[in-house]
Amino acid sequence: MDHLGNAVAHCCAECGEEEGGVSLKTCKSCMLVRYCNANCQRNHWSTHKQACKRRSAELRNEALFKDPPPKEDCPICFLPMPYSLICCASLPPATMTSVPICDFVQANEGVATEETEVYFVCCGKSICGGCVYSCVESGSTGTCPFCKSERSGKTDEEIVEDLMKRVEANDAVAIYLLAQDYYHGQNGLHQDEEKAKELYAKAAGLGLSVAHHGLGNIYHKGGNLKKAMFHYEAAAMLGNEVARFNLACSEYDSGNRERAVKHCMIAASSGSDQAMNALLGDFELGLVSRNAINSTLTAYNNLCAEMRSEARDAFIRFTISRNGGR
């Protein structure tokens, strides 16, 4: 009977011990076979490893190319939170020949990397820049837009002390921000890359996509491409379109155009203007079908429209003027 048959599913793949007499444990890598103990699993490895590695790779690909989870909403305006501020600018929709946001990014590079959201340790909420800006414009400078607590006049020590309370509560975003402080040596903390990596890993373990992305960047910078790709993949599966586009670029560089196009389609549907622009180039080269490019364009334009608001546009205009842009 083959490895998917009932006889295998209900007995140890090495010694044949049946379910009932012992509690069988499934191989976590491939989910194909079961064992009664660790010794049986070790003894069976030489027989099982090829099928295990093949099926593990199949499962990884299935998970990697699934549609990512939807973006989280701002708890005040309830609009999807873009990865970067530029994604929610009110611009003409992308077409088969143009992605207007790309020209806008080139003219306003400062906005392209501007933080989209602000995290408030008082309530543990991440608020979109549009809502924060509206709160400030209404005269509530230094006040949390969500819980209304006073946040102005805090020293570096007080900021870190407040953050540590959220870290101790196992708040993934707070852990990530503390990692950022150590990595960059800010808010009164000494630069410590190893401590930062430890904290990034903890936040990543709690399912925070930007923490995986941060680890991916650190390992990529350090030349450990295997670990970098692992964390980029984890971030992508959690919905991080920037990490997804990084994977696409890696696949392009390796000559794996079919995988690269798959990543680009998912990234573009998640709001990546870079991926959308790359896909248009692939379409011109005949690497993407018209149906595929049309459906991706529709998904990209719809998501960008969902993320727009007057408050976010006002924040973008303010940010451009603050940065000396036009």
Features:
326 residues, mainly alpha, Serine Threonine Protein Phosphatase 5, Tetratricopeptide repeat
Your description of this structure?
The protein contains 15 helices and four strands. Among the domains are: 39 residues, no CATH class; 56 residues, Serine Threonine Protein Phosphatase 5, Tetratricopeptide repeat, CATH 1.25.40. The protein is 57% helix and 4% strand. The chain starts with 5 loop residues before the first helix and ends with a helix. By secondary structure, it is mainly alpha-helical. The strands form two sheets. A two-stranded antiparallel sheet has the order 1-2. It has a two-stranded antiparallel sheet with strand order 3-4.
